[in-house]
Write a structure and sequence with these properties.
Layout lengths: L5 H8 L3 H11 L5 E2 L5 E2 L2 H15 L4 H4 L4 H13 L5 H13 L2 H15 L1 H21 L5 H22 L9 E5 L7 H13 L3 E5 L5 H11 L3 E5 L6 H12 L6 E5 L3 H7 L4 E3 L2 H11 L4
Parallel strand pairs: 3-4, 3-5, 5-6, 6-7
Antiparallel strand pairs: 1-2
Length: about 300
């Protein structure tokens, strides 16, 4: 069971620590535990209760009416409002609760609602990316277990693959052909899948070279696949040597291809090699692909 400070609860639920303390005194809605050295802490059930109350409070429920509800009663109310959730921050709270409870049906329901209303790209940018940021914060703070993180990541991966499959019959006669490569120690499968989806949707042919493909394989694939772009995903400092070698080998090709770097270290690589392109976010990816498309 995870242990949370009141600062953790504030960060994860959006309710100020001062407010939580007032609610504790006035409504006795959670009972913080104490360590052997008398330090206050909260557990998983407390987090779920405070998160539920935060969502319901945002729906207009009076704190005095919900603070003393059992967790089961709160879950029932939350379930009702997740079904009709507005397409804003409430959905992020609802997804977080679904992860805490490992509620796959509810998690998928919320994603599908957002996708149906806004389209997959907007859902990815406005809901999935903020959720991934929140999951990262929760993981680093110990607020969620590995099983809960994997639960969310696996569903998101399936959703992206589903979108790729829906678009797989699009023509691949776009003006550019892409190799997608990833250094050995990188683990950016979600980003890679989303980029693959965006390429398919924009009628661009792509080929993913797995992490165990060395640079010799990549250079051979450029010729075989007739690629004119290589997209490399790079977050880890250990991947910088890979990037250096890729730039060097590409410069020796009879017809060098365009190198595109995506990840935290893309800016560092751009500073070192001004000729490469860096993709920092969804907007820059969209702008890049739009610039490659043949005008109608």
């Amino acid at each position: 069971m995870a242990v949370y400070s009141i600062a953790d609860l504030e960060k994860l639920t959006g309710i100020k620590a001062h407010t939580i303390r007032i609610w504790e005194k006035r409504f006795n809605f959670v009972q913080p535990k104490r360590t052997a050295t008398n330090i206050r802490y909260y557990d998983d059930l407390d987090l779920k209760k405070v998160t539920s109350i935060a969502l319901l409070s945002g729906k207009g429920y009076k704190i005095s009416n919900i603070c003393n509800m059992s967790l089961h009663e709160l879950e029932g109310l939350v379930a009702q409002h997740i079904d009709v959730a507005r397409f804003n921050a409430d959905m992020l709270d609802a997804l977080t609760l679904s992860i805490l409870y490992l509620d796959e049906l509810k998690f998928i329901h919320i994603l599908n609602k957002h996708i149906e209303k806004n389209g997959f790209e907007i859902a990815f940018n406005e809901l999935i990316l903020p959720l991934l940021d929140k999951l990262n914060d929760m993981w680093l703070s110990g607020s969620i277990k590995k099983a809960q993180e994997e639960f969310a990541l696996q569903i998101i991966k399936r959703k992206i693959v589903q979108q790729i499959n829906l678009a797989e019959y699009h023509s691949k006669e776009g003006p550019s052909r892409f190799l997608l490569v990833m250094p050995k120690h990188e683990n950016q499968q979600l980003n890679r899948l989303f980029v693959e989806y965006m390429l398919v949707k924009n009628n661009m042919a792509s080929l993913y070279m797995s992490n165990d493909a060395d640079l010799k394989d990549v250079i051979e694939a450029v010729d075989i696949f007739r690629a004119d772009h290589i997209i490399t995903f790079i977050n880890e400092s250990s991947s910088m040597e890979y990037a250096d070698h890729l730039v060097m080998l590409n410069s020796k090709l009879e017809k060098p291809v365009n190198l595109v770097f995506i990840g935290y270290l893309s800016t560092v690589i751009k500073e070192k090699y001004p000729e490469v392109l860096e993709i920092r976010n969804y907007s820059s990816l969209l702008k890049f692909l739009t610039g490659l498309k043949i005008p109608d």
